[in-house]
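User: Okay, second chain of the day. Same drill as before: sequence in, structure tokens out.
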Amino acid sequence: MRIFISYRREDSAGHTGRLFDSLRTRFGDDHVFMDLSNIDSGQDFNDTIQQAIRSADVVLAIIGREWLTCTRNGQRRLDDPNDLVRAEISTALERQVPVIPVLINGAVPPAEQTLPGSLSALARRDAHEITDERWTYDVDRLIAAMQKLAGPSVARWPRWASLAALVATLLAVGAGGYVYSRSRPQAPEALPITDAPPRTAQLAGTWTAAVDYPWGVQMTERFVFTVDRTMLSGTASFLGVPRGIVDGTIEGERFRFQTRTTELRGDQELPITHRYTGRFVREAIELTMQSEGRTTEVPVTFTAARGQ
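Assistant: Same drill. Structure tokens below.
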């Protein structure tokens, strides 16, 4: 199955990155397209995206609370015919590629009268909600919905491909039997049994990063990771204060975790959740952090190096 993810960075980058990681783990790197991860240097941005949509089996339209109202230069972005998100979804609808609206962070389905004409059909698509509390369950339901929408066309092989696969299998079996009969008198050499951990096992230890926050503050943040198979724990500082890691998981070559704190507004203490996603970049790690509940929820991306 080939999946195209359409999203607006300032609206849902953190959740979209987490969903991208979950889908990549299930379907593989080459079957999930998201602009930041799948466009190489030198490629034409629009052409690459249009081609990816045309070849997709399903398009996920990620909708957060600001998706409908995001503006640029005083104009709602969806009203701009050149807006990339508008172009992605309208192209999918025109080409009759199945589109699933995916609601995150408490968003509601957009009403048809609030959408440009080229997107009005989106309001008639069944929306799928993903919540932080039921993330794995909701993603599994989304995958089931995608597979149902994509239908038999995803699994259908042309007859020649089936025949070729059968011939290849028979040849492999025959060759294997021949090699076995020739080598049977000799005792086979024992192969070493290895259980090499994924590269993310190297996360264990201390990492530091200079983080430029969107409100104009730069802080040196410190991350102390403990790794136990696919579980990640430890501490991650925010504004220089260490905070305990919760819900830390490792999926393949990527990882994610959360920290929680409170923010004082007037005489109220409001809960804040900081969501991190990360991956290795050579000998460093690249992290994206998005705070939920703060007055500023713009995602921050930075690189951390090993050491104090």
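Helices lie at 9-27, 35-38, 45-54, 84-94, 135-150, 152-155, 159-183.

User: Thanks, on to the next one.
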